[in-house]
Amino acid sequence: MALTGALALSLVSGCAQGGAAGSGANTVTYWLWDANQQPAYQACAKGFEKENPGLKVRITQMGWADYWTKLTASFIAGTEPDVFTDHIQKFGQFADLKVLEPLDDLDIDDSAYQAGLAANWTGQDGHRYGAPKDWDTVALFYNMKMVKEAGLTAEELNTLAWNPKDGGTFEKTIAHLTVDKNGKRGDEPGFDKNNVKVYGLATGGAGDGDGQTTWSPFTGSAGWHYTDKARWGTEYQYDSETFQSVTDWYFGLAKKGYLAPFTDYTDGANPANAQVASGKAATSFDGAWMISTYYGTKGLDVGTAPTPTGPTGKRATMMNGLADSVTKNARNKEGAKKWVKYLASDECQKTVGSYGIVFPATPDGTRAAVAAYEKKGIDVSAFTEPVTDRKHSTTFSFPVTDYAADVYALMRPAMQDVFANGAPVSGLTRTNDQINFLLGQ
User: Fold this and answer.
1) Handedness of CA 28, 31, 35, 37 (dihedral sign)
2) Are both 306 and 349 inside the same structural domain?
3) Least CB-packed of 215, 260, 264, 284 within 10 Å?
4) Model-level pTM?
């Protein structure tokens, strides 16, 4: 949703109304969207309340889509929470509309968190607007039974490589894991690409403008960058020959019958993990936030492998990090800042890590999470190695720019047109020009 135009004007009048409904002077209201994480943060709230007698934290959880709709509406109505879980994709828009409270006085030390996480939350004005919360990377989930039946090993999946010319060992593997309705594999003579029973790779849709769990591991390992600068870039680079050749190859996997078609994907009803769970796909790229979902799927024996090595000689994955932000119109601003400082502390992050749901932003919090996953019998090295092994892996962030909602509105249909309708990738140059025109205003 674009927070522009009438909404921006509404925010001016709405901000005078004050704080989340029902919040008291001794209550800090906190919104998050992940139900799996709520128990961990309830535990943090108990620790916080013990350290801050008289202060109470009231946590509200809602689904991803509802979350952003209701948060946007709350800014208009003046009923926003004191603190909310923020996403880097939304940050630029919120900072531009001045609905966030600067957090410079919390003295956040960038070096206390995994590399790059804290710096992402500094606005163009030099002020900090988010305290690091957690991080995630992307890896390849796979059905172990299907991999074994195909005669492949975990070691082979852990060492895949690709290139945009012939797809490398990655494409060969995805082809071999694909099976048509007659039992022919994708790399066998007579394979019927129009009647596929099991796709080698699940689809996560067209990827919009970021391709987090679709094409970004490939564009990243080809050396491409979203914008001209790591943060607050002023020019997008979807017109790049590298970007267009890589995405052309990636979506071409669907034309060959190896990648599930665009029509197989729906965000709510049939995401990539559901395609793997149903046996419709053998593998899928997905984020660390989905680990518990895959491993908790009854009847599915799942493994994970790192993203494949690309033309740069390195693997690549987006490394996203959430943060906690204080609203400009927080009713209990002093309590809100204390709560955010506590959320970003090693104490809370180790508590969150112990639940084995996400990777907290501090190194100790991450270690606690790895240990918790290990207790569950889950190997998460495919997700942690990109952070610890910089020799063989590289990480990159969501693009952080102005007009993020408008970029999304332009890129989403453009990428869908390429994937669903076979539109030429060269058409993305025009879309890129439109985006850069906006940023040049």
Assistant:
1) negative
2) no
3) 264
4) 0.92
